[in-house]
Write a structure and sequence with these properties.
The chain has about 500 residues and is of the alpha/beta class. It is about 40% helix and about 20% strand. It contains 20 helices and 18 strands. The strands form 3 sheets. A 9-stranded mixed beta sheet has the order 3-4-5-2-1-6-7-11-12, sandwiched between helices. A 6-stranded parallel beta sheet has the order 15-14-13-16-17-18, sandwiched between helices. A 3-stranded antiparallel beta sheet has the order 8-10-9.
């Protein structure tokens, strides 16, 4: 076996963490999980943590790998051959599970090209979890292949922690953290799959993988982890209630203080309006007038007329979670107030159809782009006046954080991370000059329409609006604080507090 190439722990790096995730930028992304998994290694590095990320070898990932070496092979990983590739991504070590039978397919990480979930997702991510647990448990020999802690993200990595805990072949069971990025996706499967997982019978228990008579991948991880984190303090409390806990509220409540909220940060290098190559014109809080060129460019790009009302933007998955079903109707209200709307997103076909109808009702006032476009999302944050985020639940949310950084004022539902990151422009906050956006409670036509009315009224008082933009841009949601919070947690769990 060749020397393990992730063995390059820089001086002072005393703790090695294996971060197990189904997506991470810059290799593969369907949502905020990828932003967070991609940013974590850099966020924790200043605190003496060396983080290796482990990803499935989808074609999108394999194509981008450079100088990868095989460091381990399985003849039979849940019935299929597989190998483990090691390389680096940026400054950080990366492991990729190359298992063509599971991951070498067209389409996205979880679904075929038509958007239908693969029906063997349980086997694909069980194999991923088993492989990750093997790596954590020392299957890969060689200098530096040892890890001190496992950090698993979302249901796709959940079984890693069950294998880590129950597998009789694992000599050591590492300390572990399970992060919930979204309780709505639990990886719940029929009980019949249990036999094929290769877990001991003792794992079929209420404190194991068994979940309402089936197998729950997220639940298994939540049960096995030493500490459960989620991505905002408010969501950590909300998931103790049935509406947000979605069946796992009892487990969350039972885990008590071992469930904590650590707010996501944003990559302030990627998202910096002063140095963003996607923008027509870079700008800063001190030179807000430079934003205008970006707004004009955005209007042109979406075929929108100019107007004296605000340009609202939406960058979102088009789903019920995101409140996007309410938007088409509210769009009429927005236009009636003199606003315009530019939307980028994809998702539920019924919502897409209604949005197209709204755009057809208001040519030159509403522009829609169905699809996924990273650079366009930057141009929208840089040119829009306000971003709408009417989520019914939002574990953290990143687009409102990008909006804050770019002076694109967030108009958000008061839930989860949205509640934790935006300061509502109420009378007291305005008087003290600390408002950074607009919040509203409960997602419905009336509440969203009311919030849009408030935004338009504030926009029409330029001094107030600019004050909000400047306060927004002064908010600091970089990884500095949260990177340390994760590092402190890893140290506590490994008994290596500094
Ligand atoms: P979620 O992960 O629930 O979709 P987040 O707000 O945490 O929500 O993260 C969404 C991420 O995906 C952000 O980085 C956002 O900019 C990006 N995004 C969402 N939809 C699109 C799109 N259609 N085009 C480009 N980026 C998008
Ligand atoms: C999930 C959540 C989102 C969060 C992201 C990253 O996709 O829906 O709120 O920001 O994960 O943690």
């Amino acid at each position: 076996m060749p020397d393990y190439p992730v063995d390059d722990r820089p001086t002072g790096m005393t703790l090695k963490v294996l971060s197990v995730a189904s997506e991470a930028v810059p290799l593969v992304k369907t949502g905020g999980l990828a932003d967070v998994a991609g940013a974590l290694p850099t966020a924790v590095a200043p605190h003496g943590i060396s983080m290796t990320t482990m990803l499935p070898g989808y074609p999108a990932v394999r194509q981008k790998l450079k100088r990868a070496r095989t460091v381990h092979a399985w003849d039979d990983l849940l019935g299929e051959p597989a190998r483990l590739l090691a390389t680096r991504i940026g400054d950080h070590p990366l492991l990729v599970l190359d298992a063509p039978a599971f991951f070498d397919r067209p389409g996205g990480p979880y679904a075929d090209p038509h958007g239908t979930d693969w029906d063997d997702n349980w086997r694909r991510f069980a194999a991923f979890g088993r492989a990750a647990a093997d790596v954590a448990g020392g299957a890969v020999t060689g200098k530096g292949a040892q890890f001190d802690l496992i950090h698993a993200h979302d249901w796709q990595a959940g079984l890693t922690l069950a294998y880590n805990r129950f597998a009789p072949w694992a000599e050591i069971s590492l300390p572990s953290v399970m992060t919930i990025h979204n309780m709505a996706f639990q990886g719940y499967f029929d009980a019949r799959i249990f036999r094929s997982l290769g877990l001991p019978r003792s794992a079929w228990a209420i404190d194991g993988v068994e979940t309402y008579g089936g197998v729950g991948f997220l639940k298994a991880g939540l049960q096995a982890a030493d500490v459960v984190t989620t991505v905002s303090p408010s969501y950590a409390i909300e998931i103790r209630r049935p509406e947000f806990g979605m069946g796992l509220e009892g487990l969350i409540a039972a885990r008590g203080d071992n469930v904590i909220g650590i707010l996501n940060g944003i990559d302030s290098h990627e998202w910096n309006p002063g140095h963003d190559p996607a923008l027509a014109r870079p700008f800063s809080a001190r030179k807000l007038s430079a934003r205008r060129a970006n707004k004009r460019a955005l209007e042109a790009e979406f075929g929108l007329e100019r107007g004296d009302g605000p340009l609202f933007i939406v960058v979102s998955r088009l789903t019920w979670q995101k409140g996007m079903d309410v938007l088409p109707e509210v769009a009429d209200h927005l236009v009636g107030l003199g606003g315009r709307l530019a939307l980028l997103g994809s998702g539920d076909p019924a919502i897409e159809r209604e949005l197209h109808k709204a755009a057809a009702r208001h040519p030159g006032r509403i522009g829609i782009r169905i699809g996924y476009d990273e650079a366009l999302s930057h141009r929208m944050q840089g040119g829009g006046d306000a971003i709408l985020v009417p989520s019914r639940f939002e574990p953290c949310g990143l687009t409102q954080l990008y909006g804050l950084a770019y002076g694109c004022v967030p108009v958000v539902a008061r839930t989860g991370g949205l509640a934790d990151t935006v300061i509502d422009a109420n009378t007291a906050a305005l008087a003290q000059g600390v408002a950074t956006g607009i919040q509203f409670t409960g997602v419905s036509y009336d509440t969203l329409a009311g919030a849009i009315s408030r935004a338009v009224a504030l926009y029409r008082v330029p001094a107030l609006w600019q004050q909000i933009q400047k306060s927004a841009m002064a908010s600091d949601f970089s990884w500095a604080v949260s990177g340390k919070a994760y590092a402190d947690l890893y140290r506590r769990l490994t008994g290596t507090e500094q």
